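Practice problem: Acetyl/propionyl CoA carboxylase beta subunit
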Amino acid sequence: MTVLPTKLDTKGPDYTAHRATALARIAELETEHAKALAGGGEKYVTRHRKRGKLPARERIELLVDPDTPFLELSPLAAWGSDYAVGASLVTGIGVVEGVECLITANDPTVRGGASNPWTLKKALRANEIAFANRLPVISLVESGGADLPSQKEIFIPGGALFRDLTRLSAAGIPTVAVVFGNSTAGGAYVPGMSDHTVMIKERSKVFLGGPPLVKMATGEESDDESLGGAEMHARTSGLADHFAVDEHDAIRQARRIVARLNRRKAHTDPGPAEPPKYDEDELLGIVPGDLKAPFDPLEVIARLVDGSDFDAFKPLYGPSLATGWARLHGYPVGILANAQGVLFSEESQKAAQFIQLANQRDIPLLFLHNTTGYMVGKEYEQGGIIKHGAMMINAVANSKVPHLSVLMGASYGAGHYGMCGRAYDPRFLFAWPSSKSAVMGPQQLAGVLSIVARASAAAKGQPYDDEADAGLRAMVEQQIEAESLPMFLSGRLYDDGVIDPRDTRTVLGMCLSAIHTAPVEGARGGFGVFRM
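Answer key — structure tokens:
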């Protein structure tokens, strides 16, 4: 039997303490998510509704098929910055007429839907996901363009948005724009560069320069409708492919466009899958509040994979990294999960071989992070930890099968890279509220700075101020702790969202389904030179 057993004591004090910590962190997360859901606040949402307009998320809800989930991406974008949480843009994956699509929607209740630097980063990440997984893109547009005070951070890189639309189209990935209001200046190119464009009577306004700018530039008198209204674009300029009478009609027409795309998934539906043998709610009691304490990742795997069925690979070799094969919502996956945190030479070599096998079999890889990095020390340096760690990173970097990453606990140093952190282009990366990620742990980093400063003072023959050192260490530890927390990192789009651990199986299942819209093909060689 390959069904994983469980040793989790759900009545014990450790489980109870871990669960209480997890619930507290989830409550904090929900508070931050609520800020994104609130948009520009009650005043501006009410004003928006009085104009007969729907909020961004309600537009999405009407667009996607009834009773199907919407996987929102990067909801905490801009957290901790001067801009609103969510960055005035909603992005995610939803099913429209049976077709998985990447959906973006401007939130006009936040500064008129204007784009700030985090809006741009979020939109570009959404386009990456659409391109890698060959997902049609539906843009629900209502934006006044760039947030002008921050134009210096938007103008140059912002051109990539329009580049992406043309490249998606050139790759045969459909793009649809539904214009609910203003789409001005650079924003006019979103409907202009999309394959299909829907505009709404007396609502849509699409022009490179509005009446005031035209007056300033040319002296010409004009009005919104004659310059860029939906009827003009439908009858005269030809920019509008479809003319809708209201928002509901526009969404209906967008759904019909998708229904006629003749889209087929690269892989057939895997069919019904057996749920895990153990309750997903128990995931809350596995990860300790103090990440210095190890936990068994097999307990996590047992609550994620189909039937809790897991075929381990090299279980007795390099045991601080669990590797093996399973299915998740019917899709085959290879799993790498950190057990005790530290990666040694054996774990690194084992991982490289396992990644090669997954590429030979065209099987996606799931990385479950809880690592403090590669082992340091004279014995391990002499044993080749650098070249073995490099071997694992080489394998991850050159693997061609889709990668999914979930940060459960610690994800520090080069271990974050070896386990396919953001810089290594996982198709999707999510974090649990319990996770932390940085160059190293706060205490270690502060200690290293202290040692270096003390050595520098000794070399100069100067006395060392121990009191100042203690203050410096405390300050550095506090800074690194704050900057390693998941909401801070998610605000900078270093993940695709911080999720409730209990939702992990559902989230991964939706991602795997999206991934299989495109062909899944592994590398056949091409891993570069492995130093032996």
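Discussion: The mean pLDDT is 92. Students who identified this feature from the tokens alone can consider the problem solved.
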